[in-house]
Amino acid sequence: MQLFKNKNKGPRGEARARRFSIKPYSRFIIFSLVVLLLMGTLLDRLYALTVKEGADYSSQAEKESISTIILRGKRGTIYDRNGLVLAYDETCYNVEFLRDGDNRTDYDSAVYTESLLEAIEIIEENGGKTISTSYIKRDDDGEFYYDWSTKNEKTITSRYRNFCNACGFSIPKNADGSEKPISEWISAEDAYLRLRKAWFIPSDLPYEDAIKVISIRQEVLLNDYRSYEPIPIAYDVNMATVAKLEVLKLSGIQTAKSTRRVYPYGTTAAHVLGYCQGLTESNSETYINLGYSRDDMVGVSGIEAAMEKYLTGNSAEHHGLIELKTNANKSIIEYISNTPATNGGDVTLTLDLPLQTVTEAALEHIIADINAKQLEKIDPDGDGVYDGDYAEYENIKTAKTGAIVVMDVNNGNILAMASYPGFDPNWFVNGLTPEQAEYLYTSDEAAETTPTRNKAISMKLAPGSIFKMCTGFAGLMENAVGLTETISDESPYYLRDPETGELILSNPVKCWTTKPAGHSDQTVVEALKNSCNYYFCEIANRLGIDKLKYWAEQLGLANSTNVELTGETQGIIGGQAALYDYTKLHNEQATSMPLLVFNKLCKMLEGYQHIRGVESDTAAIETCADKLMQLQDGSLVGKGAAIRKILSEELGIPDGITRSKGWVNEITSLLNELQWRSSFTIRTGIGQSILLVTPIAAVRYAAAIANGGTVYDAHIVDRVSDANGELVMKMEPTVFNRIDAPEAYWDAIRRGMAGVVSPEDGGTAGSAFSKEFAEMGYLEKISGKTGSAQVGNITIDIQNTSWFVSFAPNDNPDIAICVCIPNGLSGSSSAGAIEEIMTYYFKKIDAAVPETLIDKDGMLP
Q1: How far apart are CA 536 and CA 487, in angstroms?
Q2: Under a CB-based contact definition with an 8 Å cutoff, are residues 156 and 150 in contact?
């Protein structure tokens, strides 16, 4: 079968062939002419290259330069004391965009936009998301605006200028060449429309998709001086995304290995470990000066922040380097060398992960248990209306938060540290979801419970009766009371007026017992066992606040424990300086009382000016109030003239008017609220008044009693090793203070604490533990002390702060525990947490429980 016909066959075909036939010699002539023509063209081009354009190419060659790409190491791993991994860097993949510096035509721009749109679609359909860094935004009403991520006017102008220069937008100038106000620079809407056109973004593409392309290309332009370095456009994408992009080979799109932080046990030890986030406006300059890039992650809290300099692989000393040759457009010509980065160091903690897991569970359980008991008291029928004794109150606070710390009494090492409620540090790795942000920060519940705050080190509250060991020990050391001396409870405890000697009958301290005879003939041991308020008020009164404060400081209650964590606060022990320090302004004080007095005083001074018919000057009144308050150094006797002088100099009030109106007496009466009194001292002796301690300081205090007077600094870091396993730093026990005291004194305090938990001795917490705990023989091996610190309205005892400190075993103390539950009903209410932790501890010693770790997704039995 003939598929194609030969058109030259037949009469017409042969005629056509004769007409277009060329003789052999003619073909040779044509070929020669073509060759000569081509040779001429080549010679002309060669002349242009070597002579005409030689200088240009020589100049271009001189613009070639050596450029570098900084490589960064992995972040180090965090281990518990047993070598279990608590945090590590895992390999992941990012999507990057690399524009060839030589490809700057409109055609190239259109191709890159098409590639980006396809890449974005692939990333999103596989669950990823691209960067969203565009300065251009649009609100719900469709109005465009700039978001410069700062309120600093200088920074805004700088970023606006860089944006305009990078995108090719001219900045309007005045006649003298100076820049016009930024309000006259290109608007966000005009910039958006021009960039869409310049980058060939399809006109039918909605804003939500177009702005993704603009975000990426904005980053490219802002980093044009390093256009040989790829820009990450999507972080931590899945393998489906990687596979599809690798197959498609889209122009400018590539994937690269990176790392992400992983916390394998989720919420466990979250407050200890902390979390990592990107740089912020407030810290970026500091870290960039250390060699970090703006895209790097840094530790924000906990160990991640405290040990940042050891863990990071981003600082300059860890940098690796790729050297490459680039042309004037920063397009890569040649790779020269590659020096790998070094990884960050590994940090091993003193934390015991199995014990940590038990401690966190114990804390959650005890808070739920206390909360249920409280609700049963105030709202037994569950209808949301307070009943019985609580019917007249509103918004009674119940247990919702708390902390537990477990310490090795022989070296200060933290074995477990729990804070409730918790969070999952993995949430921060790729950014919080709206639901997570609400739980952590924006909800009413978050405002009350502050889930990210480590309450074990940052929460300071009145300690209640756990402070009585300090009062008793101070009394013994200062000979204010003897070991065998007895004091009987004659509640209420009345003070005498220091000037008149008369009894002060208002608001006396009473003991908690309801027995008619009270606590009779008590030594310090029995007073601790019974937690007798009367006894410790008397000892505090004998001591005075200065001596009481001194021994609280010696026992570490007023000082930082220096634990290797961010956010630790320190306690406040009473005295004039704690109540009001006249060397500081009202807003620089340790407590809120000076602020209350300041506000009252300002209102009083405004009233004086109103009486005089003088317009109030707020600044002058506030200055006057601060100066008047600074007269309170512990006594106002003989300072009437000083008060009148300040009123005259600051507010122009004549001396005669001040005298005639009796204003000195009014001001003195108010300032007396800032004067330390003996009534404050006796309340300090029972753990109330101007007295605040943290859970970590309280456990250190209990540990010092257990070990016989050595107050250790707290440590939660055991050692640091470099990436090769070489030891960089080993934490040794650090002694904050060593108290030289007769062993009989320590023994008395410890026997009193043993009595607290003894049912046979009728201790205040003797009935708080389960029958099973006692039958296993564990109760007789522990000592403890409860504390019920009054909060706010003292008639609502349900809101008391619950404290419980304990140590074990009695014959050779090893661990100390502190439980603190704000609004926790009573001290003995926390006994369940002590029991749960001590049961695990004793069973571990008895080898009754194998050393196994609960799976991160498992449940406690």
Answers
A1: 10
A2: yes
What percent of the chain is predicted at pLDDT more than 70? 89
CB atoms within 10 A of CB 802: 28
Please give the backbone phi and psi of residue 415, each rounded to the nearest 5 degrees, phi first.
-95, -30
The whole-angstrom distance between residue 822's C-alpha and the CA centroid of its chain comes to: 21
d(CA 753, CA 404): 19
Residue 852: band (very low, low, confident or very high) from pLDDT cuts 50, 70, 90: low
DSSP string, 614-646: ----HHHHHHHHHHHHTT-SS--TT-HHHHHHH
Q: pTM of the predicted model, to two decimals?
A: 0.84
State which amino acid sits at residue 511. C
Distance CA 477, CA 201 (A): 82
Element (H, E) at 338: strand 332-339
Q: Is there a contact between 188 and 137 (Cβ–Cβ < 8 Å)?
A: yes
Please give the structure tokens belonging to residue 428: 């921060």
410 Cβ contact list (under 8 Å, min separation 6): 707, 733, 813, 814
Residues in the chain: 861
Which of 219, 229, 246, 216 lies closest to 101, judged by CA? 229
Other CB atoms within 10 A of residue 646 CB: 22
Residue 354 scores a pLDDT above 50:
yes
187 Rama class: left (phi>0) / alpha (psi -120 to 50) / beta? beta
Q: Which residue has tokens 């990436």?
A: 723
DSSP string for residues in 789-854 = E--SSTT-GGGPEEEEEEEE-TTS--EEEEEEETT-S-GGGGHHHHHHHHHHHHHHHTT-S---PP
| One-letter amino acid for residue 410 of the chain | N
For residue 11, what pLDDT band results from cuts at 50, 70 and 90?
very low
Percent of the chain with pLDDT over 90: 75
End-to-end CA distance of the chain: 87
Q: How confident is the model at residue 379 (pLDDT cuts 50, 70, 90)?
A: confident
32 in helix, strand or coil? helix
For residue 297, give the amino acid letter: M
Instruction: For 410-560, list the strands marked E by DSSP.
Output: 414-420, 493-496, 503-509
pLDDT at 44 (0 to 100): 59
Q: Is the pLDDT of residue 49 over 50?
A: no
Angle between helices 207-222 and 153-167 (to 10 degrees): 90
Cα→Cα distances 153→159, 165, 181, 650, Å:
10, 18, 12, 36
Backbone angles phi, psi at 769, to 5 degrees: -100, 160
What pLDDT, on the 0 to 100 scale, is given for residue 67?
83
Spatial separation of the C-alpha atoms in residues 535 and 665, rounded to whole Å: 37
Which residue, 596, 674, 604, is CA-closest to 634?
674
**Environment class of residue 437 by beta-carbon count within 10 Å: exposed (0-12), middle (13-18) or buried (19+)?**
middle
- Around Cβ 242, how many Cβ atoms within 10 Å? 19
Burial 102-139 (b: 16+ CB within 10 A, else e): eeeeeeebebbbbbbbbbbebbeebebebbeebbbeee
> What pLDDT band is residue 857 in, cutting at 50, 70 and 90?
low
Q: Residue type at 521?
A: D
pLDDT of 763 above 60 = yes
**Three-state DSSP class for 269?**
coil
In the numeric block, the tokens 């991994």 are attached to 85
Lookup: tokens for 209 = 């998709």
Gap between the Cα atoms of 579 and 830, Å rounded: 30
Report angle CA 398, 402, 405 to the nearest 5 degrees. 155
Quote the mean pLDDT of the chain: 89
- Per-residue pLDDT of 229-281, as tens digits, reads 899 999 999 999 999 999 999 999 999 999 999 999 999 999 999 999 989 88
Tokens found for residue 613:
């018919």
- In the sheet where 414-420 sits, what is the strand order? 414-420, 402-408, 815-821, 801-808, 783-789
* Dist CA 407 CA 414 (whole Å): 5
CA distance 452 to 275: 10
Q: Residue 595 — very low, low, confident or very high, per pLDDT cuts 50/70/90? A: very high
